[in-house]
Amino acid sequence: MTSPAVSVVVVAFNSAEWLPRCLAPILRQAHDVDGLEILVVDNASPDESAALVRRDFPTVRVVDSPRNVGYGAGCNLALARATGRTLVMVNPDCEVRPGTFRAFDDHFRSCPTSGAAGGRLMYGDGSFQDAAFRFPTLAQVFLDVWPINWRMTQARLNGRYARALDATAFRCDFVLGALMAVRREAYEATGGFDPDYFMYVEEVDWCRRLRTHGWEVWHLPGAIATHHAGQSTRTVAGRMFVELHRSRLRYYRRHWSPIAVAAARAITWVGCRSRAHRLAREGGPGILVQVDACHEVMRMVGPGATMGPRADA
Fold first, then answer.
1. Residue 277: closest CA among 298, 294, 265
2. CA-to-CA distance for 150 and 128, rounded, in angstroms?
């Protein structure tokens, strides 16, 4: 049997509300390319995510994970089973626009040096969402903790590319994992996502490894999706705040010098302390959970700290 041109991977956790809106637009593009397969990994969801896919989308392959292994490891479960030459990861809270998979597949066929590519993203209200970035620096750590103003947030110093580039194809450092395609040869050369990243930063690490192996990473204007960001994790925001900083610290340790790592930890500690004090003053629903999350991050990045248990532990 001939392998499909494109394999689409969706990792779901408590995503029953969003999966129909994600999968239907993907299926409508089945005839845009020379064969398309869809694999949904259910990360031991307590809701009916897996049952819904099996019932309403019978052509979609469901991969059941016995526990919540996180996003990157979940993707790897499907990537190991995928047979397409172009491998596309789509978040369950994304709705892809027509022509997206053709754009990815055509790009890899016409650009043999490209190992990964991302598309244009917009929020649910239609506003612009950054989708391509420069690799993190200490300046970005500082601006994330101490945002000065929106102009600095969108500046090159904070890892952003000019918004005018969004409508063009260009090489970048890394793309957002919400809509990310990888050439099969590049996947086989680098081994997929690093499963040590439970949530967040896994695409930054993979793109860095792809670049180290000589592959380029591109932003493509013809691949477009609406990304309802954070829908799968909004009910566990405190936990995910901790996981975000755990993944960032892991990335720093693997790719930065010891001096830069120490500086990043100090900046993060001071920033979380300030955030905890501000939240405590403001009060409101869920404040204790958010303050506790700040304190946990402070313990994680403080002197003599360890990484601590992951969310799946």
1. 294
2. 14
Number of Cβ atoms within 10 Å of the Cβ of 141: 20
Domain boundaries, the chain: 6-227, 235-301
pLDDT tens per residue across span 147-194? 676 566 777 888 999 999 999 999 999 999 999 999 999 999 999 999
Q: Quick count: other Cβ atoms within 10 Å of Cβ 150?
A: 8
Two tokens, residue 47: 């809701």
pTM above 0.70, yes or no: yes
**Tokens linked to 115:** 């190992």
Q: Are 198 and 250 in contact (CB under 8 A)?
A: no
- Measured between alpha carbons, how far is 155 from 129 in angstroms, rounded to an integer? 14
Strands 61-64 and 36-42: parallel
In this structure, the chain runs to a length of 313
CA distances from 97 to 22, 32, 39, 137, 251 (A): 10, 12, 19, 33, 32
243 HSE (CA, 13 A, CB side): 20
The CA distance from 184 to 7, in Å, is 10
3 state SS of 145? helix
Angle formed by the axes of helices 71-79 and 202-212, nearest 10°: 60
d(CA 84, CA 180): 14
CA dist., res. 300 & res. 173, Å (int): 28
Cα angle vertex 132, ends 228, 268, to 5°? 80
CATH assignment of 6-227? 3.90.550.10
